[in-house]
């Protein structure tokens, strides 16, 4: 994991995020912490990652999300060479979906 982001301030931010309990609390917190464009950029990257994992083409992803090919490439690099953070989250979301159907 990148040592440059591991700071006390980032620890405090993550502690704050981990204290959130509902989607509504997430909206309240993230709307205060992020600009609208920052939040939309984060959500766009998350959607791009999901679509890349679903083997969608760059053209399809760009048309559906509005992401540039540079953004799609950056997300793809994270998927291939990153810390497997996207995969961890997508796997947990999939498990939650299965549990809610049971």
Automatic annotation (TrEMBL):
InterPro entries in the cross-refs: Trp_repress, Trp_repressor/repl_initiator, TrpR-like_sf, YecD_YerC
Top-level taxonomic group: Bacteria
GO MF assignments: DNA-binding transcription factor activity; sequence-specific DNA binding
Alphabetical list of PANTHER family matching this protein: LMO1763 PROTEIN (PTHR40080), TRPR-LIKE PROTEIN YERC_YECD (PTHR40080:SF1)
Protein name: TrpR YerC/YecD
């Amino acid at each position: 994991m990148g040592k440059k982001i591991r700071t006390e301030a980032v620890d405090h931010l993550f502690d704050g995020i981990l204290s959130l309990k509902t989607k509504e609390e997430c909206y309240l917190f993230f709307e205060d912490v992020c600009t609208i464009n920052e939040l939309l950029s984060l959500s766009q990257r998350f959607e791009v990652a999901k679509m890349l994992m679903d083997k969608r083409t760059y053209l399809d992803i760009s048309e559906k999300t509005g992401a540039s090919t540079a953004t799609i490439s950056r997300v793809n690099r994270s998927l291939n060479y990153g810390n497997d953070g996207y995969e961890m989250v997508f796997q947990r979301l999939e498990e939650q979906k299965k549990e809610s159907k049971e």
